[in-house]
Amino acid sequence: MPASSAGPSAVLDIAQVGAVLTVGLNRPAKRNALNDTIILELDACFGCLPKDVRAVVIHGHGDHFSAGLDLSELVERDAAEGLAHSRMWHRTFDRIQHCRVPVIAALKGAVIGGGLELACAAHIRVAEPSAYYALPEGQRGIFVGGGASVRLPRLIGVARMADMMLTGRVYGAEEGVTLGFSQYVTEAGGAYAKALELADKISANAPLTNFAVLNALPMIADINPQAGLIMESLMATVAQSDKEAKKRIRDFLDRKTAKVRPT
Ligand code: 1HE
To answer: What CATH number does residue 214 fall under?
Structure first.
């Protein structure tokens, strides 16, 4: 892991490695349970990324990504406070999803409740074999409040999410990559390094292509197909008219770039 910068608080460990910002959840003694301080620090971090950052890796210190909502803060909250709290999470996780640059989550151990909601707001999830996914809200007498009902069904389907919440079903990393919880599964201890490798690769893309993938692609998937096709044409036109695209295509035609081969 990179040397840490002096962050604004102890609950997030923020460091920059070249063009990649690493954001570490840093409450391992509490299994990285997400209290208000962590959510507000994430909000501040994603609301003000350094200009030279071209990808973000979010990860957890200790053996777990995150045990979800800090339940000790929930006990005394009334309905109005609960609503405000959920909307605060929505704002923060929207900032992550609609971030200027791609966000990669490196997952291990517990990816539970709000921890899974946080992972869902990232664009790529990389899991190591210890990672497991659960939504114990049903057992705790609560409901998801950090965007899972919107984001998770798009990854795994409504029926599977309903089953997790109703029965407490837990999915492991291997099953998880097949079902859509993550896009990658690594060897033991390998998620952080793989996430950094992917972040480096993504940082080398043309910024307009990354912008289109983060902003146009998910929106097109949600709107009616004819509007989606028009938006696709407009986005394609903007991207291909950029100097960066012209240079990259010229480089290919001049045989200066790597060919696409099976991995
Ligand atoms: C916590 C939390 C937490 C641990 N809030 N303090 N999430 C859950 O229901 C998951 C609850 N946590 C667990 O099931 C387990 O802690 C773990 C499987 C994640 C880890 O087990 P283990 O044996 O390694 O650790 P531990 O002994 O259970 O916990 C270590 C400490 O972390 C302990 O505190 P301590 O002061 O007694 O040492 C735990 O109390 C504390 N801790 N998880 C508060 N979640 C926007 S809505 C989202 C709704 C949700 O996220 S619901 C899911 C909540």
So the answer is: 1.10.12.10
